[in-house]
Amino acid sequence: MDSEQYIYKKEVDWSLLHEGFTIPVSFQVRFQEIIGHGLDKGQTKNITLLVENKPFTAQLKNQDFDQSRYPTHKDLLQIRYTRNSLLADILRTIFNSSYEYLKIKRSELGQNNRLIKLPENIREYLVLYTSDSADLFIADCLTIWDLQKEIQVISSYPEEVLEAEINYKNVDPSAGLDLRERIVKVRRFDKAIADNLKLLYDYRCQICGNNFSAKYDTSIAEAHHIDSFIKSLNNDSDNIMIVCPNHHRIIHKTMPTFERSNRSLIFQNGYQERLRLNYHL
């Protein structure tokens, strides 16, 4: 579809398999731009999610809250459905591995424990895209099998070849058709994740706060992987910071350590630089 654009990748959890999920602030800038209008707080609209090429009914809701108590709170967008709906049922079927694991853990830890996370090596994801229709959204289901195939292919490549694949989104032409389709399915949102974050920061550097390109009517903000993608295979927003080209070159030349506890870069000469802007880390 010509207008298909990435919105959000959601890690599978108990809530997604039963009731819905929240679209974080770091993606709402892009999401509201894509759908063309925002919902007022407390408003809902009916939408359709296309899962495995089948349509399912859901609601898009701008969650209501007391603005007098939380005047600076950002809008909280959610996609909602009921636990007895056909949509919830198909998601539990597709993500059966996650569902069975979470059921066992909830039984061990208590039925009301909703904060259980799957181990990193068995996590699965739902990836949301727009479509040609304003009220129809496409949901890709990335199962553990999809991700294992991706890791299998990546681990067999030299680092310089892998970097070229990541930058230019090539796919091994010698791979079988099914495998090529699955690789594309996993990777097609890579650049869009960074683009969402650039919009969130208005193309400003998180380190110095500057947007050097504004007066030239262009954009030169860059996405930097905190943990090397070659080693971590982590292209999620929690592993990306938006920086200006100068700071990006400095980071790669000096290889500082990023301390998440205080959002600081620690350089080898002892210099410490905190992020000036941070809305997502």
CATH architecture of the largest domain: Beta Barrel
Biggest sheet overview: 7 strands, mixed
The helix/strand class is alpha+beta
**What name does CATH use for the topology of the largest domain?**
At1g16640 B3 domain
Total strands:
12
Approximate shape: globular
Q: Helix coverage percent of residues?
A: 25-40%
| Strand percentage | 15-25%
Instruction: Count the domains.
Output: 3
Element string (H = helix, E = strand): EEHEEEHHEEHHHHEHEHEEE
CA radius of gyration is 20 Å
Uncertain spans: 159-168
Task: Characterise the protein shown here.
The protein has 281 residues and is α+β, with helices and mostly antiparallel strands. The protein has 3 domains: 6-142, Beta Barrel (At1g16640 B3 domain); 145-187, no CATH class; 193-274, no CATH class. Helices cover 33% and strands 21% of the residues. The protein has 9 helices and 12 strands. It has helices spanning 25-35, 86-94, 96-109, 144-155, 159-168, 177-187, 190-200, 229-232, 245-254, and strands spanning 6-11, 20-23, 44-51, 54-62, 77-80, 125-129, 136-142, 222-225, 240-243, 257-259, 264-266, 272-274. The strands form 3 sheets. A 7-stranded mixed β-sheet has the order 1-6-7-3-4-5-2. It is globular, with a radius of gyration of 20 Å. The relative contact order is 0.12. Mean pLDDT is 80; it is low at 159-168.
